[in-house]
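Fill in residues.
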């Protein structure tokens, strides 16, 4: 009498009907299911389905995202050349290398200019931070979980990050830059979190438990209206202008901000 095996060997497992379809048809199905493959929340289930589907979706996501990221750098390089009348291939924005799905979970950029009020030692004025940040509009239109902007604030000889007014100026400049992009009728921001932080090398020699940081969190109402909540914190700054009114520095807000920063940094580590 024949017995039925309790486990199936690889040769006895039927192949997936979906994976047996031609690649072109599978890609068409992906696009029907996911009109915007850069919305990583929508792709999460499929990415975990199996190794082959993960590889195919990852390739599709990266293929659609990298041209946007590269275009940001090309635009910034052109702006640099026109600003300084030079042919040097430099850019105000450093672009990350994105090769897989995980590296899209937290896309880190660095804007290598001052805080919008600094001057070059030679006396040449830097372009406004708001102008350079505005060049990221196409990137911010992607449905990415976290976009982190590192801002290496340029200090003069008599300046230090221990000065609360300088940190307040940093927070205010970042707040203004984001609000200008958000108010642009030709721009549709879809990133779930946009975080501004001072370049870490600037904190050497300073004993700050909480460096100044400001984050914008995407909020959608039940009626479908989308807006951004602002969370910011600098324990030593006395902020009493527009940004001060927008930020409520209570313990619950501070804890939310800490959690967002932790998740964004975990996502960045997982991607690398």
């Amino acid at each position: 009498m024949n017995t039925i095996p309790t486990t199936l060997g690889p040769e006895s497992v039927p192949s997936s009907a979906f994976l047996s379809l031609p690649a072109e048809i599978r890609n068409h199905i992906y696009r029907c299911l996911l009109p915007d493959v850069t919305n990583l929340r929508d792709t999460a289930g499929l990415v975990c389905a199996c190794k082959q589907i993960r590889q195919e979706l990852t390739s599709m996501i990266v293929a659609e995202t990298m041209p946007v990221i590269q275009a940001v750098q090309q635009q910034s390089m052109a702006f640099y050349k026109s600003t300084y009348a030079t042919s040097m291939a430099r850019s105000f924005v450093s672009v990350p290398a994105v090769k897989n799905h995980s590296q899209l979970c937290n896309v880190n950029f660095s804007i290598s200019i001052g805080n919008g009020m600094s001057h070059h030692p030679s006396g040449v004025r830097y372009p406004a931070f708001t102008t350079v940040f505005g060049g990221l509009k196409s990137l911010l239109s992607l449905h990415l979980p976290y976009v982190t902007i590192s801002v290496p604030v340029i200090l003069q000889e008599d300046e230090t990050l221990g000065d609360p007014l300088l940190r307040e100026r940093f927070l205010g400049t970042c707040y203004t830059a984001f609000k200008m992009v958000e108010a642009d009728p030709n721009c549709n921001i879809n990133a779930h979190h946009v975080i501004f932080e001072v370049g870490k090398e600037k904190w050497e020699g300073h004993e700050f438990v909480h460096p100044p940081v400001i984050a914008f969190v995407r909020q959608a109402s039940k009626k479908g209206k989308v807006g951004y909540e602002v969370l910011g914190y600098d324990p030593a700054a006395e902020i009493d202008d527009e940004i001060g009114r927008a930020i409520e520095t209570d313990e619950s807000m501070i804890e939310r901000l800490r959690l967002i920063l932790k998740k964004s940094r975990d996502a960045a580590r997982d991607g690398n």
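The chain is about 40% helix and 15% strand.
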